[in-house]
């Protein structure tokens, strides 16, 4: 893999016309076919934006998804959906409820991934939510234990990952933002990810959100994926101090812009952050992206944050003489 490849974590903001359409659909004022066409339109626009900026590995932007967990639960047997639950700030989501055996009747993410990949010659990541996070962000009214719930979910996520690879996905990301919140269950998350990635030849990535990484490092290196995707900008690159304790030993995707701020970083700020990372990691071990998904930003903010990621990387590649 080339050095300092650029990408986005996964989610991108929905334009106003799509937010309006999704609200109309929820009120049964718009049909599924019409909504799908608008989801494809927005996906097409975001692929074009990423192409124009010059990112190396693209995403479909998850324009057909609401919440990253509820989206999968709505497409699986064995789940019911609760009323609105507050997640953070003034943001709410409908929390899944496990009420029976988990079954997948057909692939969930393949159609939109194929559509997005058909728009570009650059690789588009297949995007999945990991079994541990689906369990942790759901109510359980069926399984005898969290372990049983997680391991059954792992089988479903594995099937979805294998279908993505068979369809041609060269990168498959399995998001596990909940891993850092329950250090005592890290072994369970590792075991489940082993089921998910077994037999895959695509490059695998997991994104882990903000948390106390000192409590799970270096054990987190045993998560069986090729690349760990971690925020850096929001915490002032403090994770680098944690990683000094033990050789990292995996590729790392480094978040260099804060997705929870309206402020647009400068290319120079991105470059300076990367210089700090390069003090510990060789360039061929590093990918570069925002801290997390950008869906909470405005469309213009997201575009500008992706643009400065590209510009900051270009500054560093010029300094290093990397073509």
Describe this structure in words.
The protein is of the alpha/beta class. It has one domain: TIM Barrel, CATH 3.20.20. Helices cover 38% and strands 18% of the residues. It is built from ten helices and ten strands. The strands form two sheets. A seven-stranded parallel sheet has the order 1-10-9-8-7-6-4. Strands 2-3-5 form a three-stranded mixed sheet. β8, α8 and β9 (251-255) form a beta-alpha-beta unit. α1 (16-26) runs antiparallel to α2, α6 runs parallel beside α7 (186-197) and α9 (267-278) crosses α10 (299-320). It is globular and about 55 Å long. The two termini are 13 Å apart. The model has no long low-confidence stretch (mean pLDDT 94).
Content-based structural category = alpha/beta
What form results from the Cα inertia axes? globular
**CATH class term:** Alpha Beta
Strand order of the biggest β-sheet: 1-10-9-8-7-6-4
Number of helices: 10
Low-confidence spans: pLDDT under 50, at least 5 residues? none
- How far the N terminus sits from the C terminus, by CA atoms, comes to 13 Å
Count of strand segments:
10
Largest sheet: 7 strands, parallel
- Quote the CATH topology: TIM Barrel
Relative strand content: 15-25%
Overall number of structural domains: 1
Helix content: 25-40%
Order of helices and strands: EHHHEEHEHEHEHEEHEHEH
CATH architectural group: Alpha-Beta Barrel
Rounded mean pLDDT is 94
- The Rg value, from CA coordinates, equals 19 Å
């Amino acid at each position: 893999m080339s050095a300092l490849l650029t990408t986005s974590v996964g989610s991108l903001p929905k334009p106003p016309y799509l937010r309006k359409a999704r609200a109309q659909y929820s009120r049964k004022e718009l049909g599924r076919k019409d909504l799908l066409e608008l989801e494809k339109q927005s996906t097409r626009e975001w692929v074009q934006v990423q192409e124009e900026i010059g990112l190396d590995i693209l995403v479909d932007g998850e324009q057909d998804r609401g919440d990253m967990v509820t989206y999968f639960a709505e497409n699986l047997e064995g789940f019911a959906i609760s009323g609105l639950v507050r997640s953070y700030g003034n943001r709410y989501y409908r929390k899944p409820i496990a009420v029976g055996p988990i079954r997948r009747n057909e692939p969930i993410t393949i159609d939109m991934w194929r559509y997005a990949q058909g728009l570009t010659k650059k690789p588009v990541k297949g995007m999945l939510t990991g079994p541990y996070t689906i369990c942790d962000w759901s109510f359980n009214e069926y399984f005898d234990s969290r372990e049983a719930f997680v391991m059954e979910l792992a089988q479903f996520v594995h099937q979805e990952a294998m279908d993505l690879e068979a369809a041609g996905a060269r990168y498959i990301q399995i998001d596990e933002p909940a891993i850092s919140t329950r250090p005592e269950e890290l072994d369970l998350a590792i075991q489940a990810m082993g089921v998910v990635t077994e037999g895959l030849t695509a490059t695998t990535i997991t994104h882990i959100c903000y948390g106390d990484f000192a409590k799970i490092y270096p054990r987190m290196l045993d998560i069986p994926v090729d690349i760990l995707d971690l925020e850096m900008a929001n915490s002032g690159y403090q994770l680098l101090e944690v990683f000094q304790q033990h050789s990292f030993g995996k590729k790392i995707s480094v978040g260099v812009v804060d997705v929870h701020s309206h402020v647009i970083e400068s290319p120079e700020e991105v470059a300076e952050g990367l210089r700090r990372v390069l003090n510990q990691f060789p360039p061929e071990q590093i990918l570069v992206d925002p801290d997390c998904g950008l869906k909470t930003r405005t469309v213009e903010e997201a575009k500008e944050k992706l643009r400065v990621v590209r510009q900051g990387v270009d500054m560093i590649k010029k300094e290093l003489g990397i073509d």
